[in-house]
């Protein structure tokens, strides 16, 4: 619309409206689309027609994992317009991770042409428990590096935008809940990666728990006399179903696997020893999910992480075990068990979803902290 | 207040107000407390002073267990004014249970002088899963008797009041959440009785799950090669921590116990074989609660049922196991683990609480079905 049409529509004087549009144009929230020269009937200078710039609002999602950071940028129409990943090691300090993330963001924005003229907010996923209630440090006693203290302040300072921080597994659960085929009110999400974590949706809401630890399925004990976990307990699910644990179990069974790619090849050639290991992992995972599902009665259980795409038999076996565990319940609406649809970037996408703050999943979720009071 | 004072206060004519008070007096919602004769300064007939009758609104709570029915009646001030219990056997058909419940209600109301002049609603707890979404049958595949079909209609017809039906363990969880010392937003409740059931409060709301089965902790598998459960699976928590299972385990350990009273005496004389059994039960229970707590991160875990009052060591041992299971979590606010404060009538009290429908715990809970659309 032209400035004149806009002024009539919103009932402002042309002078006032012109001031507003000048400011919006300067901030690149709107752009000049064309002029009305072609259709103009009267005389005088053709009027510029203004339109919303899809790039007028950007939402930045950042997912810090144990060994890599993913970033994703969405525009005002909620489309992902840029994404990227940068690896580091489990011992990389947080200051360095932040620098790597900032450089990555500059790079993907440079490549894609995205600009942060109107950055609306930043969602950040961090490993380990996070209460989501206040800006501040993620206290992660069982990670080997200092906690993600000050991540939110560092981003708020650099980009001058409001920041939401939450546990990255919980954000991935959110991303699966809104991206998957179902529209579940009750969902249990678990992700098998370097560690094992998860997130819950109960009665249509993402669950934080009393201290921000809800969904920590990786540290449920499955074998009290099992391997020592990095958390200090013995026999946690993570000691059996994390990627390093699965690769180790395959090696213990005589297969010389080092990476997920090796595992993919072993699965392809139907290595029987590897198959047994994977089925055992699926059964153990199914027991933990079964106990959680007996407590929560979900519509859907989602098993995420690169591992389950490489080894779908884990999902298959976990689903069978889950069905056995839930056998006492009338199967009016049988539980759906599926692999995650999102791949590695799920946490970054979940972080953006948390920013949009429009999902009923996020009702009563804390509002973002940081620069100013903004609605998304 | 007198009718004159009331009319001034609410701004109605004395004639209109008189019509209303006459109707309320007839329905016994209000009563004449006294007259103002003693304090009256002017002349004329002393004016009657009217007051709310605490008995003006009654709320009936009914809790059908596997072997007994509890009823409780609350008045308009939410005080319990009458309560009672009637036993039956696990094979008593539902028609007979209903007759027993109706006779019990008549009896306790006769004894207490309670009358149902203004019955506001009926809350009913039934064993086994219940979705709470619609009036109708509780489908309980693993109970040996026909499901509680038509319970709601039978009560609605007899008393002409709206009826809410829900799983009795969930109602007990509600009763504990609102009666206990804390005011927990996140609570896991488990009850050890003839069976083992439970209920969850997540983010300040009672959880039903997708099909009404949330909280069924009794059928979490704790030993895949254990005893056959009445549900058909092996080694459910119920096969270890229900009252009959605990008594059986004590007998297997050489103690000749038949009843909870026998157990109480054995606990009192510090029978070492019984102590070992009870500690094992506590440890197993603690593992199941630990897995649930790792998923849900509650403020409080409550273990209810007569058994834990007889054998508090079960709670003690479960709490110790739970603390071990949750060891990886920073103990900023350590989890409270306690025995239920409510005794046998908890389900009936929870059923009344569900009726009041005022607790934020019940936000978005289905509204009662039955006679008319009433607010509580």
From TrEMBL, chains A, B:
User: PROSITE patterns under this entry?
Assistant: ROK
Looking up SUPFAM superfamilies in the UniProt record yields: Actin-like ATPase domain
**Pfam families given in the database record:** ROK
One GO term in the molecular function aspect is:
kinase activity
Protein name, as recorded = Sugar kinase of the NBD/HSP70 family, may contain an N-terminal HTH domain
The text of the family note is: Belongs to the ROK (NagC/XylR) family.
Q: Which UniProt keywords apply?
A: Kinase, Transferase
Instruction: Output the InterPro entries linked to this UniProt entry.
Output: ATPase_NBD (IPR043129), ROK (IPR000600), ROK_cs (IPR049874), WH-like_DNA-bd_sf (IPR036388)
